[in-house]
């Protein structure tokens, strides 16, 4: 299967109880298929400036916002492949760009080496490097991990449903090889369902949402982690925006999304 490096879609989130999740998942299996990875753990290491400028801007709900993270599917080893990802949201549409790199190359970069590149994705390489040029001292700030189940729909490859459980974080020992342990971000949300689609939902799925009384929820893993667990000690939420940030933010929005 060819590695997908660019994504364009809408992402909608729903909060489920354990009981609802069990019933909903059972009915969903009549229409969608659990992917080959089954229940797997995802680790995302979010980068930000020392004053958390990127996440604070995102929480203001602007027309354009962006994040950068390093993502690993499972706890990596030196020989593992991980992903450098930028995630942008413009007028409700999510654009994700990523390149695969070896964990060894990532470590060398973090120790002062060259920015890792993917030889067959020059445009994405340039976009990621440009992002780092626009923000002062982007570095790992928090690790967020969760256990995911992902379902695909054979009749529409753009329609996917994921369920994230035990969403947890840690702000120390920001080394992906140290494991996925951490404190729960929101204990009151046992399961977060994300629906990824570009068009309308299949009728049967809309009927399932109605049957179980599920409604759209605002839930950003990084933003909620920052607001609940980091803001008071690292950078208050109500910090006034630096004037020069506005200029950077607007220029970012002009960056080409696709080559």
TrEMBL record:
This is VTC domain-containing protein. One of its GO terms (biological process) is polyphosphate biosynthetic process. Residues 8-226 form the VTC domain. It comes from the Bacteria. The lineage of its organism: Bacteria, Bacillati, Bacillota, Bacilli, Lactobacillales.
